[in-house]
Write a structure and sequence with these properties.
mainly beta; single chain; 18-stranded antiparallel β-barrel; two-stranded antiparallel ribbon
Length: about 550
């Protein structure tokens, strides 16, 4: 309890400091991210998106810079810019009197021409409120499948001190072949609330409250957090697991240096048997799960324009909140040695990670890569008889506007060695709600991905993609600590080859129609060395309001 009080005091100190504006995070599936990324890899703007989500205020600053100098944008990009300037009118109003809100309550369209169910803005209070409604219908392996979702989202600002956001979605899926766990896929994991016959339901809520000053911000909420780049998944920290509560601190004192820190409350899924007690109904026991946490910090350096070098560390620990991991500048691994007295059975699970991003050093190209070190023995690094290295890495490239404008090619490769992300203590795996925090392929696997995207007009785009995955066996705890390490792709292997295409159109803000097709082939190795092959095809049509 005293640790929570201390940290609350820290938050209050920052709140009472000289705050200049506010921060609201933009959801990660917004197309604004790919828009700014494409433009930055042509050298038109600098973009700090190693860690996402970005704030709407930061995005509006980049749009404002493009508005002042749009001579190098394509005609479609100029149309998209006008579209996004409507989207971020509230944020633009902080620094631009041309976007000053009227002080009127607006239904269906705000002061900036953006369609909203309700919008209000004055010098004290600003808010946008919109419903969420979507329906997806199609077939999976010739079986009918549907997905219906609804909810509510709003975001806003109170004076110059407070930014807030809320997003709730209730989902219902139905179909004999519907994916009920979404474990081995790039879809975000779910927590099912109800499952009957061939249908199931689940919900997701995201919310945050944030403060921003001229050299940083702090935020508390339940949000997604993404580290690094990758259309096919992220090695270090991804959106595979459901969102979890965290406190986030970002500091950027100069243009060439940024610092990020988070402390999160994960869901262990491990019952604490020491505190079971009986309820008064049907002799059931009351269950409580073991506490599980993550702390992570990252330093990002920009030695020259367009080149970002990132260095970070994280630690997953359990059972009780530790003040050492609430210190943003603490060396977590040494703090673990102090707390555990170097007793591995009493310690936590730490990781180191590194990233590099190069934009427009090769014209119109973004090169990027990430490396995660879960465990490595440097003294035995080149000794094949003694090494036990558990690492993961990924690298990729994106080229845009070649050979024609509005065309983007992306290729990526990711590899996870055996037992990266795992741990012999169940409460200290690199997971939340039993979904990995890293790449969705898990350990002992690799992936090759390629895609081609073409934007036809503002809001209308089409994409073709191809993906190949090799996945080895899961192994056991004993295998994890075998010396030397088990070979990559040990065990019975599974191979996956997928391709597909989609076309989507954002008719106006947050109103989408989409059609998509995908073909999947998998081969599972048997004990006799033979493979069993399985194929399926999917086709869906989606109509939704709310991204």
């Amino acid at each position: 309890m005293k640790h929570i009080i201390l940290y609350s005091i820290l938050i209050q100190i920052i709140i009472l400091s000289d705050i200049l504006s506010q921060t609201i995070f933009e959801p990660l599936n917004r197309d604004i991210y790919s828009y700014l990324s494409r433009i930055s890899q042509r050298g038109i703007i600098d973009l700090d998106d190693q860690i996402k989500p970005l704030s709407r205020k930061y995005i509006s600053m980049k749009l404002s810079a493009l508005k002042d100098d749009n001579s190098r944008l394509t005609p479609i990009e100029k149309d998209e810019l006008e579209f996004y300037l409507q989207e971020y009118g509230f944020e633009l109003s902080f620094d631009n009197t041309d976007y000053k809100p009227s002080g009127d309550a607006n239904f269906f369209k705000d002061d900036y021409g953006r369609y909203n169910f309700f919008a209000y803005g004055d010098s004290l209070f600003k808010i946008n409120i919109n419903p969420i409604l979507g329906y997806k219908k199609g077939s999976n392996d010739s079986k009918s499948q549907s997905h219906f979702w609804n909810g509510l989202q709003f975001h806003g600002y109170l004076t110059d001190n407070l930014g807030f956001s809320f997003d709730f979605r209730d989902n219902s899926e139905k179909g004999d072949n519907a994916d009920r766990i979404k474990l081995f896929s790039d879809a975000t994991g779910i927590i099912r609330s109800r499952s009957v016959d061939n249908s199931f339901e689940y919900s997701e809520v995201r919310t945050s409250i944030s403060y921003d000053w001229n050299w940083g911000f702090i935020s508390a909420g339940k949000e997604f957090y993404e580290w690094g780049y990758g259309k096919s998944g992220n090695i270090v920290h991804s959106t595979k697991s459901p969102s979890y509560p965290y406190i986030r601190l970002d500091i950027y004192p100069v243009s060439w240096l940024r610092f990020n820190y988070i402390h999160g409350w994960l869901a262990s899924g491990v019952v604490d048997s020491s505190i079971l007690y009986q309820t008064n109904w049907r002799s059931n026991d009351r269950e409580q799960y073991r506490s599980k946490f993550i702390a992570s910090h990252t330093l990002i350096l920009t030695p020259i324009n367009g080149l970002d070098l990132s260095f970070g560390e994280s630690i997953v620990y359990s059972d009780r909140l530790e003040i050492s991991y609430l210190m943003p500048l603490m060396f977590f691994r040494l703090a673990d040695h102090y707390l555990s007295r170097t007793n591995n059975n009493a310690g936590a699970n730490s990781q180191f990670f590194f990233g590099v991003s190069s934009r427009n050093h090769i014209p119109r190209t973004h090169l990027y890569g990430s490396l995660l070190i879960d465990e490595i023995v440097l003294s035995e690094l080149f000794n094949p008889k003694r090494e036990r290295n558990q690492i993961a890495f990924s690298f990729g490239a994106s080229v845009t506007d070649l050979p024609v404008n509005n065309l983007t090619f992306t290729v990526e490769y990711s590899k996870t060695y055996p037992f990266v992300y795992t741990h012999y203590i169940p409460t200290q795996t690199y997971e939340s709600n039993n979904y990995t925090l890293g790449h969705w392929i898990g350990h002992n696997a690799d992936l090759v991905y390629g895609s081609v995207q073409y934007r036809i007009i503002r809001g209308l785009k089409t994409e073709i993609w191809l993906r190949a995955v090799r996945k080895g066996g899961e192994g056991s705890v004993d295998d994890q600590y075998t010396i030397p390490s088990r070979q990559f792709l040990f065990g019975l292997r599974k191979d996956y080859t997928d391709f597909g295409f989609n076309i989507s159109y954002e008719i106006f803000h947050d109103l989408f129609v989409k059609a998509e097709y995908a073909s999947y082939k998998s081969k599972s190795e048997q004990n006799d060395g033979s493979f069993i092959e399985f194929r399926r095809k999917e086709f869906y049509f989606t109509f939704n309001f709310g991204f």
